[in-house]
Amino acid sequence: MIALAAGYQHFADGAPFAEIALRHASVKEVYFPWVGEPSGRPKLGFEEEDDAAELEAALRRDLTRLRKAGVRLDLLLNANCYGAEAMGRKLEGRIGDILATLSSWDCKPEICTTASPFVAHVLKETFPEIEVRASVNMRLTTLQAFRYLAPLFDSYYLGRDVQRNLETVKRFSDWCHAHGKKLCILANSGCLRNCPWQTFHDNLIAHSDEAMKVENVKGWCTGPKRLMQKAS
């Protein structure tokens, strides 16, 4: 059976996320951001719910149900926009606080996915029992990059731009098997190949809530598709 990882969503109305995920036997992992923490996904409750306490309560209910069903939990710490805090004590402390809260719920994640070598270092030093996974946002498309990161990461998302080449996937898979690592692939990527917008878009998504509250330039597009359409 194929093992899939599903991205957590909060729905203000309708069935809870855990109920939906558990309808599908192939969903073996769920990855989720922390309430109010920037990640490569829009913040929890975006455009539906803005009550941090309610979002945290809903997340706890869903994660508890998923944990009891044997679904592995993957905490996303995969923002590319930590700024001046990128290797600071404050970020280190925040990681510890998040994991302490999750542990108190009996929902300590089996995996943490990050795009930050510093976050990976903190996890390796402080939580060696957690699998540290390299985010697809790291754009890893060479074995040389895998080798550089080997001391910090246990598993890797292969870069979007090479994951459709089966010979390439096999080469990376063989290396991972030989070095005790795990290879992951993003099955639902909507990005264009070699898209130069990705870093810009990742940062915009991480702060999408704030971005909706400022005055933005009207008519400007956030990706290459519309520019290509205009050019044609």
Task: Please give the alpha-carbon distance between the first and last residues.
Answer: 44 Å
Strand content: 5-15%
N-to-C series of helices and strands: EHEHEHEHEHEHEHHH
Query: What is the CATH topology?
Result: TIM Barrel
Number of helices: 9
Count up the domains.
1
Number of beta strands: 7
What gyration radius follows from the Cα positions, in whole Å?
18 Å
Adjacency order of strands in the biggest sheet: 1-2-3-4-5-6-7
Looking at the overall shape, the CATH architecture is Alpha-Beta Barrel
Main CATH class? Alpha Beta
Report the average pLDDT across residues. Answer: 89
Structural class: alpha/beta
Shape label: globular
Unreliable stretches (pLDDT < 50, length at least 5) are none
Helix content: 25-40%
Largest sheet: 7 strands, parallel
Q: In brief, what are we looking at here?
A:
The protein is of the alpha/beta class. The chain is built from 9 helices and 7 strands; from the N terminus they run E-H-E-H-E-H-E-H-E-H-E-H-E-H-H-H.
Describe the SSE topology.
Layout: E1 4-7, H1 17-21, E2 27-32, H2 52-68, E3 72-77, H3 89-104, E4 111-114, H4 117-126, E5 131-134, H5 143-149, E6 155-157, H6 166-178, E7 182-184, H7 198-206, H8 208-211, H9 224-231
Helix pairs in contact: 3-4
